[in-house]
C-alpha cells in the first residue's frame, strides 16, 4: 500500500512553507504520494496586507490548496509544520485542527503516524513546547507520534531537538537543515509504510 502523506503547514513569512517543500521532496523521493497543503489563514485580509512580508507570502502560496477534512481522510500519514506562538502552535493551525472533530469522533485520525516541525524567532522561543504540546493532540486522536528522536547524526548538528525539526525564522536553510528535515520526512514515510 502506498504511503499517502498530507504535509500541512502554516507560514506567515515563509519559513514553514520552505520546510514543508523540503519535506515534500524528501517524502516523494522515499516513495510517498504527497499532498502539500496549507492551513487556512484566519487573520483578516487587511491585517495580512498591512505587513509586507506576510502579504508577499500569501501571494507566493496562493496556488497551494488549503487543507480539508477530506485530505485528512485521504492520508494515511501527516507531517504538520507551523510556527510557535508563545510556546504553542500558531493559532491558524490550531483553528484548522479544531475543524477535525467530526473525523476524529468517528476514528478517522486514529492509527495514523504523525510528525511535526516548527520555527521561532529565537532558538529558545518555545519550539520544544510547541511540538510536545501538539503531540498531546495526536494522542487524543489515537495517532502514532513519529518524532525524529536521535536516529541520525544530523539531529545533533541542527540543535539536537528529538521532538521534530525546528528552525530559527529568517535563517538560511543550510545543507544540514535540509538533511534534518529530509531525515524526519523519510522516517515518517518508512514508519507509515510499515503500518500500511
Write a structural description.
This protein is of the alpha/beta class and 196 residues long. It has 9 helices and 7 strands. The chain has helices at 15-29, 45-49, 52-60, 69-74, 91-97, 101-105, 127-141, 154-157, 175-195, and strands at 4-9, 33-38, 77-85, 88-89, 113-120, 144-145, 166-168. Strands 1, 2, 3, 4, 5, 6 and 7 form a 7-stranded mixed β-sheet that branches. Strand 1 (4-9), helix 1 and strand 2 form a beta-alpha-beta unit. The longest helix has 21 residues, at 175-195. The termini are close together.
Question: What order do the helices and strands come in, and which of them pair?
Answer:
Layout (H helix, E strand, L loop, with lengths): L3 E6 L5 H15 L3 E6 L6 H5 L2 H9 L8 H6 L2 E9 L2 E2 L1 H7 L3 H5 L7 E8 L6 H15 L2 E2 L8 H4 L8 E3 L6 H21 L1
Parallel strand pairs: 1-2, 1-3, 3-5, 5-6, 5-7
Antiparallel strand pairs: 3-4
Amino acid at each position: 500500500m502506498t504511503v499517502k502523506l498530507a504535509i500541512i503547514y502554516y507560514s506567515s513569512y515563509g519559513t514553514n512553507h520552505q520546510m514543508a517543500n523540503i519535506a515534500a521532496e524528501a517524502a516523494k523521493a522515499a516513495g510517498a504520494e504527497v499532498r502539500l497543503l496549507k492551513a487556512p489563514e484566519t487573520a483578516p485580509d487587511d491585517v495580512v496586507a498591512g505587513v509586507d512580508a506576510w502579504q508577499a507570502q500569501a501571494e507566493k502560496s496562493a496556488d497551494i490548496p488549503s487543507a480539508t477534512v477530506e485530505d485528512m481522510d485521504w492520508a494515511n500519514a501527516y507531517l504538520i509544520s507551523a510556527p510557535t506562538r508563545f510556546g504553542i502552535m500558531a493559532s491558524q493551525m490550531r483553528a484548522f485542527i479544531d475543524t477535525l472533530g467530526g473525523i476524529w469522533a468517528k476514528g478517522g485520525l486514529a492509527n495514523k503516524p504523525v510528525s511535526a516541525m516548527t520555527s521561532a524567532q529565537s532558538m529558545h522561543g518555545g519550539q520544544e513546547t510547541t511540538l510536545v504540546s501538539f503531540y498531546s493532540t495526536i494522542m487524543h486522536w489515537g495517532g502514532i507520534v513519529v518524532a525524529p528522536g536521535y536516529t541520525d547524526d544530523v539531529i545533533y548538528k541542527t540543535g539536537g531537538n528529538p521532538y521534530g525539526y525546528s528552525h530559527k525564522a529568517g535563517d538560511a536553510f543550510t545543507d544540514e537543515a535540509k538533511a534534518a528535515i529530509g531525515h524526519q520526512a523519510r522516517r515518517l514515510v518508512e514508519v507509515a509504510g510499515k503500518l500500511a
